[in-house]
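Memo to structure team: turn this sequence into structure tokens by end of day. - J.P.
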Amino acid sequence: MKGIDVSSWNGIIDWKKVKDDNINFVMIRTGFGSESPNQIDKQFTNNIKGAVENNIKVGVYHFSYATSAEKAKGEADFCIKLIENYKDKIEFPVAFDFEYDSLVNNPLTKKEITDCMIAFCERVKEKGYKPCIYTNYDFIKNKIDMDRLKDYYLWLSYPNSEQPNIKCDIWQNSFAGKVNGINGNVDTDISYTDFVKKEENPPQDNKNDNKNYINYTVVKGDTLWDIAKEFLGNGLRYVEISKANNLKNDIIYPGMVLKIPKEEEVILYRVKKSDTLWGIAQKYLGNGERYKDIMELNKLKIDVIYPNMELKIPIK
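Reply from structure team:
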């Protein structure tokens, strides 16, 4: 599902044109920091009204300057107060946005940042919203404790790439998108989670956990026909993939995660130029280190492969 995230930096937006440009959801900034009339995003009201009136699904985010869990909880209360009149319209998450600028004057430890995130998300959850963390890969690696944040949705900023490098619910894929109705650049996003249908706060480790399917992440150049041919042996069976993913048309895009009906314990893969066993294992098994499983299944003595070589890929 294609979306954008906006704030006062994007100016006055023509939401009808945005909707007509096939934007399905928007994450809107409520404001920043602790409660103050001066810290409400100047376009928040215009943005949320415009999105709702044009049937664009809405989520929000609040930029944080919290220096403690208690202050983060206060920021959550400020955010909740701003959105309370739109509660039945907010189907996407309420996200805690903590970035490098949040730390400029207030350096915090990994534990302290994580405590702030938990405090905000728990307050949001108490009020019946879907709690979410907005962050980037550097923060995940070095500044926060993701093991303590698994109960919350993840909105990952990882722009200028064909796909996110870790599993996430929303992927911010560009800071320089172009959308009708918005002057200049706009942040664009892709949602992998059906927030409207899913029960609130499902553990991320269990998402898409269906023994009848495997997950495939679309890469540049893919078509449903090609994917069906590769996994199901016949391009005409693309309709089965479309049905399994509730697709309304045959449009797919890089980074999109598709459920592929699973019929056997292995799939056949024809090696392409520049393929490596590590890359194939990363793509199909979710872990490059599992290249050894592919070698064992195909009785390979060395890790050398070549174009048009047919490999069996374990899918259990």
